[in-house]
Amino acid sequence: MKKITAIILALGLCLSLCGCAEKLKSVEIPPMPTKSPAPVSTPEPVEEPEEEIEAAGLTKRIIFTVNQISFADPDPLNGFETILHFSCQMPTIFIEGNDSATALINERLGELCGNLYSEEEVPLEMDEHNSLLSLAESNYSEDNNPDFYFSHKISMIRADDNIIAIKINTEKTTFDKEKPERSEEVHYFDTSSGTELSEDLALSDAYPEAEKTGNGSLEVIALGEGDASSDIIDLYVADEEGKDFLLISTGMINDVNIADLWYCNYMLDCSVQLRAELPEGVPVLMISYTSQGLEHHMLFSVNAETGAPELTDFSTIAVVG
Predict the structure, then answer these.
(1) Which terminus of the chain is less hemmed in, N or C, by CB atoms within 10 Å?
(2) Separation CA 107–CA 12 (nearest Å)
(3) In the chain, what are the domains?
(4) Contact 150, 87 (CB under 8 A)
(5) Which strand (E) or helix (H) includes residue 67?
(6) Whole-prediction pTM value?
(7) How many helices and strands in the chain, by DSSP H and E?
């Protein structure tokens, strides 16, 4: 009996389990969540700075100005005759952005030219003018005029980032008119340091000469006429009482030279203020520059009809006579 009862209970359990299984079949099991991969951050592209390429020899603007002193000394008796024709030039240099080299070169130029003429009282042997004048006066008589001559000229022959080269020409005539004393010397300076260099070192491969890449033009206008945006780099005074003009470069030009007394190694979209007194229609002031490897020589004048300033190509001026 107990066995029969156990069998019946077992069959009942089996049936109940089958019923649960049917219910489980109808239950929808949600899908397992899938793990999304973490987003990978993409670095933003870094812009490479553009390489600044500076043309050799064009990074430092160099301005060279010459103060010229010229006069004639009369005889000591009646002042009718000239016993000494004296002319000398006192140079000043400016290197843009380099005050130390500027000061060092100017100090040396002062040593080279400082003993020529002084408005102060100095010993005769310290002043070329006083020494020559004293010699001329002591040898002058009504029957004899020594007519001494002295000329000292300075010019810039090279100016770039590597070398500044200045030439000095001196000519002196005293008693022997047929044999004037002449000398020429060139002084070389390191543009960056201002140190004076030997000729051999300055002309070696250690100091290569820069290529001149000027490809612009030069024009002149009266000061105040459309020049608001022009960068004025310097003022050159040819005449204290003159009018003011602007010499404006469009593009780059090299070796700008005004009357052999003002020099700039390059001008780039800028101007120099020029003060000059010029007779109308008479071109007397020479201005030169280099562009595309060609030298341009211009004469600056004021138009006789319009009164406007103008530059005239020297090669186009016809010779009269």
Answers:
(1) C
(2) 124
(3) 62-202 (3.30.565.40), 217-316 (no CATH)
(4) yes
(5) strand 62-74
(6) 0.76
(7) 4, 15
